[in-house]
Amino acid sequence: MKKILLGVALFALAVPPVLAADSGGYVTGLLGYATNEQDLNTSMSSGLLLGYRFPNAISAEVGYTSLYNNASLKGLPQNASGSATISGTEITGVYDFPYSSQVSFFGRAGYAVMSVSANITSGTLSTSTSATESGLLFGAGVKYKIDSSFGLQAGLNSYYLSNNSGSDNPINWYVAASIFF
Question: Which of 36, 157, 166, 170 is 20 to 30 A away from residue 74, measured at CA?
Fold first, then answer.
């Protein structure tokens, strides 16, 4: 057990100097698709994140994500149609686990506040509703750093949103490009 702890301690001491040169700000744009098994069909997603990477492989990000934009609702009666939109802000912490000088795996954890709106039409009747949902988000993925100013990534975020009237648990699969400055 002592050998394992010693190995983990040596790894923890060795990793930050390797990553220290990668500190600074960045902008990430993402495109993907969101899924929700409860009541929404798959929809294209997009987002923009602003981040800062500290010398110890930890990053802080804040951004806007549109998970669903007029996504069709599931389970409606035959003569009804409906759509929903879920979008809002998120703040996350990211930790990079380096694999090589160009490739790293990452984990994300944070908090999201999303606006949810839905419209349902049945014949000549139409109704709309909106709410704010908030909750935790967790994510993981892989990054590929092309050079000191540009990188690509692929990942997923799982959202655990809720309010007084219900909950949504969308998963967002995405690809992204980052510009480092």
Answer: 157
Here the tokens at position 86 are 């879920």
CA distances from 158 to 20, 120, 131, 135 (A): 29, 26, 20, 11
Count structural domains, the chain: 1
pLDDT grade, residue 2 (50/70/90)?
A: very low
C-alpha pair distances (Å), 63 with each of 2, 20, 154: 42, 24, 17
Q: Do 112 and 161 meet the contact criterion of CB atoms below 8 Å apart?
A: yes
How many Cα atoms are found within 13 Å in the side-chain-facing hemisphere of 119? 7
* Residue 56: CB atoms within 10 Å: 15
pLDDT tens digits along 56-114: 889 999 999 998 776 666 667 777 777 778 899 999 999 999 999 899 999 999 999 99
Strand partners, 102: none
Name the more confident of 166 and 15: 166
